[in-house]
Amino acid sequence: MKKTIYSLLTVALVMSTFSYVGLAKAAGNLITNGSFEEPVVTSGSKWQLMNSVPGWSVEKTSDDTATTLEFHRGWSGNVASEGQQYIELAGNEPDRIYQDIDTCVGGTYNVSYAWAPRQGVDSAIKVYWAGAEIGSHNGIGANGALNWTVTLHSQTALSDITRIQIEEVGSNSMGMFFDNVVVEETYCPPYDRTAEITSPSEDEIVTGLVSFDALLDDEDGNDNVQWAVRQGTCAVGVGTVLGNVDGHSDSYDWNGDIFHAEADSATWADGAYCFIFNPTESSGDIEIRETLEFFVSNPPTEVSQCKKGGWETFSSPKFKNQGDCVSWLQSNENAKGNKKDN
Questions:
Q1: To the nearest whole percent, how much of the chain has pLDDT over 90?
Q2: What is the β-pairing status of strands 205-206 and 290-296?
Q3: Collapsing DSSP states into helix, strand and coil, what is residue 135?
Q4: Are 60 and 67 in contact (CB under 8 A)?
């Protein structure tokens, strides 16, 4: 029967037993082939140098060149910490193995592994997380059954890809036995989704064809969107004239990141309007509802609109006086007051 010693480093250790089938990751484990069950040792000697190890990159510690990795399966009666196989981190020379895993920036992870000095051999390893040393272990193995030590660290991810690396730092061609690497995510902060309305601009005065544009920065890029243009200020919340809410189903483009719609405001009453951009959120997402106020000011279409101070109410274009307003109408072939009767 194997003897296992548990070592606690930064947090209390609660061990769970995981079953490995082929290259499948154990439930909750981010490591592929963490118990080194692949490739399978087929040699009658019960140990074998492997040229390729699924899930892992293998290098010589001395010069970073590719090398083989020594696998054991019941050699000398030794029992693995997990599954049927384990590795020795020195086949023909001290070796290094590493694996890059997907992580969540700012997330926390439990990192555990099992190590055992080879019987009668002075060996030493170092363990790294994102380039920083998190473990240093050494010793001479006693004769008899392997004494596996399981060590746990709590670590924080600083990027969306994190490397876990283990290397033999002894000088022998015989090294530390190693097994059962498990990395479990314990916390992942919600992605900082952001959105921005890019058109119209705040308090812009528009006329005619108006473009409504917005951007969403979201991790998954699979959210739907609700949007509306409402007459009045954004505080009013009623009077939808455009959008896909309140009974409207107006045309728009949306790919999960970029929003675009457009409309002719020539028929809209002059005054304040509010553009509302509300991408829906997936579970755990931060809610976003962007609003922007703008103003519609269509030009006059009849001379009568220039009279009695009416010219002062227009801002696109602006007029100096009533005569300026009338002159603009007379030069604008689309103005009703300038059209000749047939």
A1: 63
A2: parallel
A3: strand
A4: yes
Q: 137 is written with which tokens? A: 């272990």
Question: CA–CA separation, 300 vs 21, rounded Å?
Answer: 76
CATH class of the domain whose range is 3-187: mainly beta
Indicate the SS3 state at residue 17. coil
pTM value is 0.64
| Rounded Cα–Cα distance for residues 47 and 264 (Å) | 76
CA–CA separation, 37 vs 85, rounded Å?
6
Q: Both tokens of residue 305?
A: 């609109």
What average pLDDT does this structure show over 99-115? 97
Question: Domains of the chain: which residue ranges?
Answer: 3-187, 194-296, 303-338
The helix (H) or strand (E) run that includes residue 323 is: helix 322-331
Q: Exposure string (b/e) for 109-147, b if CB count within 10 Å is 16 or more?
A: bbbbbbbbbbbebebbbbbbbbeeebbebebebeeeebb
The number of CA neighbours under 13 Å toward the Cβ of 239 is: 15
* CA 34 to chain CA mean position, Å: 24
**From the candidate CATH numbers 2.60.40.10, 2.40.50.100, 3.10.20.30, 2.70.50.60, the one assigned to the domain spanning 194-296:** 2.60.40.10
pLDDT value at position 170? 78
- pLDDT value at residue 284: 65
Q: What is the DSSP string of 173-208?
A: SS--EEEEEEEEEEE-PPP--EEEEEES-TT-EE-S
Instruction: For residues 105 and 30, give the distance between their C-alpha atoms in angstroms, rounded to a whole number.
Output: 15
* Digit-coded pLDDT (tens) for 65-90: 999 999 999 999 999 999 999 999 99
Close Cβ partners of 304 (under 8 Å, ≥ 6 residues apart): 310, 337
Query: Confidence band (pLDDT; 50, 70, 90) for 337?
Result: very low
What are the angstrom distances between the C-alpha of 152 and each of 33, 49, 97, 221? 18, 28, 18, 35
CB contact set of 98 (below 8 Å; sequence gap of 6+): 56, 57, 59, 128, 163, 164, 165, 166
